[in-house]
Amino acid sequence: MEYKLPNDILVEKSLLGAMLISEQALINCLGSLVEDDFYEKNIANRLVFQAIKRLTDNHEKVDVVTVYNELENMKKHDVVGVDYLQDLSENAIGVTSLEHYIKMLKDCTLLRSLLIKMEEIKERYNKGIDGTVSDFVAQSGDQIASIVEQRRVAEFIRLNEYVQRVNSDLLTYKETREDHLIGITTGFNRLDNLTNGFQKENMIVLAARPSVGKTALALNFALTAAKSTGKTVAFFSLEMSGDLLTRRMLAIDSGVELNKITTGYINKEDRLKIKTSANRLANYNLFIDDTPSIKMSDLITKARKLQNNHNDLAMILIDYIGLITSSEKPKGDFNRQLEVSDFSRKIKDLARTLKVPVIVLCQLSRDVEKRENKEPILSDLRESGAIEQDADLVILLSPDGTRRKKESDNNAKQDEKEEKSSPNTSQLVRVNLAKNRNGQTDVMTLLFQKQYSLFSELTEEQRQKLDALRQGKITRIDEELKDD
């Protein structure tokens, strides 16, 4: 059934009249309005706006006479005559009322767009759902959310408003944060000093080759955020089940080896540690979604739903971008790089929309292993250069090559082989903050205790041993690090 969409012909005429008689009104209206803001069935008003826009694009004067001449050039003067233009100018509103009238017109546009989109969704449903119900709901929700978002970004905001917001934030930081961080602590002092913590709206990329420890470091970040903020943290695990993640978190928090937790060979003392840790973790607002190969649209929908249900959402982690799938079926000219680029942009948009830091894990390409210098660089980010472009922070992980002297090649190769196969080996991991949009970059070394899935900063004694190794005073530091 056809029905009349929301519109206000009197508001349209009042604004057009103001543009005809006031240069200031003309500038303000053209900076805020587009042709679609004038209802398509109010043909005369649309034509007048088109004529005004053509004149201003050609840097010509706008008034009743010039607009009528332009309508003649458009061969539309038979639809809009001089009398109609004169009537518009006589009913023009003052400049002081412009903002209110523009908002009224924009509200009509928003309602029209929503109703039209809902009709399209209804028509799509009547033709038959292409894909799963989950896909249909997610896509429909995204389309509606996109329309609503347009209203928020339609206008410029005066700097004064931003100054007040930032000043309010700074006062809050001063009163509540003794560590001077303006974001969520990473749990590592050097990284905090460089980043000021993980910031709202930031996309943080954590990348490494397999088995270096990126999932373990992400879990360390998640637990630290949940503990330090007391707020909600979301972890999307596409590769590992929620049960396995929980075992890792119990190992991190309790100090009981992951292998013992996994196999169940636990003595009385360790069992008590795990029970204490389980009670502590149960109080964290950390939510896990372990849907394998989740679709991008579902991930966004679930994140928005979590924020709606828990308005204190502090951080989102995604492990990892290479396993996200598209809602659309691949076509003949399918390009995975373009698809991942699209995912990257949507993750960045998600961070900005929800106003939380989003940490997304990423694989590094095999090229890093083919080079003589195996230190990863930004171009090693796998599948898409858009990830590097969209990210606010990029953290690259790699084994620290100074763990043992290179002169003892045979021993080093054997040690590396044993290290990869053993779940109970402490490793030095090189943490390269390779991109920091709002600060300095740097490289640091962390200790990764694989048996506990735990990352920690080096103690002063451990740093001295590392320096001694680099200076050739000792040949290896594995055992010394384990004993500290």
Secondary-structure map:
Layout: H1 9-21, H2 23-32, H3 43-57, H4 64-73, H5 82-90, H6 98-127, H7 133-152, H8 159-176, H9 189-195, E1 203-208, H10 214-229, E2 232-237, H11 242-254, H12 258-263, H13 268-281, E3 286-289, H14 296-309, E4 313-319, H15 336-354, E5 358-363, H16 367-370, H17 385-390, E6 393-399, H18 409-421, E7 426-436, E8 442-449, E9 454-457, H19 460-470, H20 478-483
Parallel strand pairs: 1-5, 1-6, 2-3, 2-4, 4-5
Antiparallel strand pairs: 6-7, 7-8, 8-9
Helix pairs in contact: 1-2, 1-3, 1-5, 1-6, 3-4, 4-5, 6-7, 7-14, 10-11, 11-13, 14-15
Explain this structure to me?
The chain has 484 residues and is of the alpha/beta class. It has 2 domains: 9-132, DNAb Helicase, Chain A, CATH 1.10.860; 183-327 and 335-483, Rossmann fold. Helix content is 52%, strand content 12%.
Helix content: 40-55%
Could you tell me the CATH topology label of the largest domain: Rossmann fold
Tell me the distance between the termini: 76 Å
Q: How do the SSEs run, as a string of H and E?
A: HHHHHHHHHEHEHHHEHEHEHHEHEEEHH
How many β-strand runs? Answer: 9
SS-derived structural category: alpha/beta
The radius of gyration computed from the alpha-carbon positions, rounded to a whole number of angstroms, is: 30 Å
| The top level CATH class name of the largest domain | Alpha Beta
Count of all domains: 2
The largest sheet, given as strand count, sense and whether it forms a barrel, is:
9 strands, mixed
> So, CATH architecture of the largest domain?
3-Layer(aba) Sandwich
Q: Would you identify the regions where 5 or more consecutive residues have pLDDT less than 50?
A: 404-409
- Write down the overall geometry: elongated
- So, the CATH homologous superfamily of the largest domain? P-loop containing nucleotide triphosphate hydrolases
Oligomer: single chain
In terms of DSSP E residues, the strand content is 5-15%
Note the total helix count: 20
Rounded mean pLDDT is 81
Strand order of the largest sheet: 3-2-4-5-1-6-7-8-9
